[in-house]
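Title: Request for sanity check on histidine kinase prediction

Description:
We are preparing a figure and want to confirm that the structure record we downloaded matches what your pipeline produces today. Could someone re-run it with the sequence below and paste the raw structure tokens into this thread? We only need the token string, no images.
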Amino acid sequence: MYKIPGKGLTNFWAKLPTRQRAAIVIAIPAVCIAITLAGWIWSRDSNLMVQQQSDSTEQVIVESNTLLLEMLNAETGARGYIITRNEDFLAPYNQAIEQVPIELQKLDALLPDDTSAQSQRLQTISQMSQQRLDIVTEAIRLIQNQTSSDSSQIIQRVFEGKVAMDQLRSAIGEFQADERALLEQYKSDKNNVQQFTNTLLWSAVLVSIMGTGSALFLFSNLDQELRTRERLLRESRSMLQAIATHVVDGVIILDDDREIELFNPTASKMFGYEAIEVKGKRLNMLFADPILKSYEEDKKRRFVGSQQSKTMGLRKVGSPFPAEISISDLQVEDRLIVIIRDISVFEDAQAKLQSRADELVRLASVLAQTNNTLEDRNKELEQFAYVASHDLKAPLRAIANLSEWIEEDLSGQLPPENQHQMKLLRGRVMRMEALINGLLEYSRVGRSKTPVETVNVNDLIVEVLDSLDPPQLFNIKIQSNMPQFKTKRILLRQVFANLIGNAINHHPRADGSIDISCREQDKFYEFAVLDDGSGIAPEYHERIFTIFQTLQPRDTKESTGIGLAIVKKIVETEGGMIWVESQVDKGATFYFTWLKESLPFPIET
């Protein structure tokens, strides 16, 4: 897709806030001036630095010439003295002895770096100068103390001096040649800086012209946009007045002097004033809360979002009413918008809710007292049940033991009918004890606190089967999808133990089969215990879960009729359900649901 050049930049410019655009318009010429000034400063500093380096190099050349001249004067004076023996010729030599070290120090001070090649040459020149002066000094000493044998030594010193002087002159020549090359480099650098400066200045002039043109264009564009915004603001004010006239809340607009400028019909109805009565007045005439004075008196106050508060409004007749106000910056010519809502109805409703809440608190207190009383009664009942069961079991065990003793004492003397009656008596005693134990278990369901722990249901069922010890020919199958979750292990174990135990005990055959399965639902697991026994007629599906109800006569099958009642109570107190699906001679399937997350408190059934 073809994109219009500059359109993205135009959109970006249009999205910038007015303050930022004005800042950019001002910044463009300022940046151009800053760039020009920075270029001029850099050029000036660069020229000064190059000029200083050139001056220093020229001074090095001058001083090296002075050094060479001093050494030549010393050599000339020494030769004149050697030839004439006139000490007046030693004046240049004596001057060189004083000036040469001074000139060497000046040169050392002028060189910028002690480790440079020129500094090393200067050290060599210094050594050679000292060597040359030493030779001249030795020659003069030999002349002053001359003997007939010293002539050859004097001539030798003169030749040595000439060689040393030639070497010194050559070293100083190389030294000056390097300095002159460096001087030419500095002059070239100066010319380059000057050319760059000229280019930079002309570029700055061009950029300044372009920046000024851009600033003028952007300023014109900004001025046009501000005019458009001013027109839109006038239209917005008209629209705002039209909207305020029809809203259900009271709307008041304050001008930049914090005086009422707009008073909509809802506010007029709320306070009882006509708009003309309050126009130009202060806001505090409408409210009893003095905190509003801070909003009125601070003309420069700016609001972030809106300031909400509750206060009391004052109607024209002087009656107060609860009100909720919101004060916001309108962002139109430093105006504020005040929105008022009469919350009398809300306050009344809140008072009623508070009254209901107080009543609930009172009822909760009564309920807590009732629960405490019930807990005390449950403890008393549990203690009574324990004592009663103990007192009932003792005579029952005594009767059973007595029947066994009688049967042992009269062994061989009791007729078969009496022996059968003795066995029947002990069976009734065992059933009575089982009934007592069942009643105790039934009464404890939902009243005792049971810990929650991680349970592997497959391992739990295996543990139950080990405790029940089913017949060897019995086939019991546990499906592989048994879950592992946190629940009340003791209660779930008792449910499985009672259901599996019933399926085994009431099965007509010793080679029956039981299938235990599970199906996961949204919030619970649905377990099923299926057997292939005699089955249960549909009319007894509800009856079997009632306490003390059995399907077979107790004389033919020992049963308390409590096991399934305990299962039903456990399942329902834990938030689940239990039911049976069965037909006569077609086996039975007991289903029950068990929550994935245990209830904090059992459900009363």
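Thanks, this matches our download. Residues 146 and 212 are 90 Å apart (CA to CA).
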